[in-house]
């Protein structure tokens, strides 16, 4: 087993988990391959948030089976991530090409799974240890200027539509001192922007000191060399006034706040078990805006939750109109295994959910276009990501509010550098800019 490939589906949490899986494989002496069909070990790091996750996994396993039959590779196939946790051993029986199943709480045991496979066994390692085994030294991160750090694992909220508490286990915060050491180490290796990860990140509590998320941000924001800190995902009910003040008073914290509201109707919020009301959410948004007038708010919305009426949906549109989110991720309700909402009566017909989602996106598109237009002529400090996906010659970077800015490249431009651009145009989904004449960064480039 000399080479590996990890295929990542889903969220930033999975991106980091894939780096953790790669780190374990590299510690076992494996090297990265360019494609799963060329690798000795191929891992699918899967996501089960959307519908048909299992079918998609089985279809991908079918392709890998064909590759193995035709090319002899991948020799070993492992299923990781949330679908692995959700389906467990059952998938081993459904796919002959699959050698092992490894849940997100068992990343550190990947070596054990490979040993079992080498001994001719098919294993399923799922479930969660009392404390999650997260070894920051064993993460194959690459040299990117933008890095992820988990601060809290799992989730205890049990929103009735969500599979995460079943696939990622109970909430467990990492010690503040350990997170601080990890961030310092990343900065020393050249990281500029650190994105802190957690399903309910603002529920963070240091198990050693009791420090909350605001205190964690204050600490990380004081570290020399950290240029910008971002974080996802906040739960509306865990913000406190002190925490909001800490976010607002820590200059290195980006101006991007992802605060899912999911639905605008109190009846739907109650059935979702979200723990807040529409008025409570709007009150929170008011506090956040007063503390951070320039912050860009982003959100998640579910359309067509069971028994959602037209009136309920209009309440959702009303929240979108009032708050004017800079970004919105909208999804049609998708019944997930083991979740209470999957058994709720009143399934909204597909024709209705499709039409509602279109209306939601149409409204959001107008809001986003107007907000982006209002940024024309602003100078924005961006972290350069590299060539834009579309558009010849353009590069792209992200500003402190997570907005994408596209701009023409210049000769000395480098990935991972901080540059200043002037916004010259805007669509609903991106800003267009040019290099600022005075291209000095507002903050010092990290010097750790
Ligand atoms: S808080 Fe987020 S991750 Fe936790 S159950 Fe609710 S939607 Fe899922």
Shape estimate? globular
How far do the termini sit from each other?
A: 38 Å
C-alpha Rg (nearest Å):
22 Å
Q: Main sheet?
A: 6 strands, parallel
What portion of residues belong to β-strands? 15-25%
| Structure classification | alpha/beta
Task: List low-pLDDT spans.
Answer: 442-448
Per DSSP, the total helix count is 13
Helix percentage range: 25-40%
Mean pLDDT: 92
Strand order of the largest sheet: 2-1-3-4-5-6
Ligands, ions, cofactors: iron/sulfur cluster
Count the E strands: 19
Please describe the structure with a list of short key phrases separated by commas or semicolons.
13 helices; 448 residues; alpha/beta; 19 strands; 33% helix; 6-stranded parallel sheet; binds iron/sulfur cluster; disordered C terminus
Report on the architecture of this protein.
The chain is α/β, with parallel strands linked by helices. About 35% of the residues lie in helices and about 20% in strands. The chain has helices spanning about 10-25, 55-70, 80-85, 90-95, 110-120, 165-170, 175-190, 215-220, 240-250, 265-270, 280-290, 310-325, 350-375, and strands spanning about 5-10, 30, 40-45, 75-80, 100, 125, 145-150, 150-155, 170-175, 195, 230, 255-260, 295-305, 325-330, 380-385, 395-400, 405-410, 420-425, 430-435. The longest helix is centred in the C-terminal third of the chain and has 24 residues, at about 350-375. The protein is globular, with a radius of gyration of 22 Å. The two termini are about 40 Å apart. The protein binds iron/sulfur cluster (SF4). Iron/sulfur cluster binds near residues 157, 162, 165, 200 and 235.
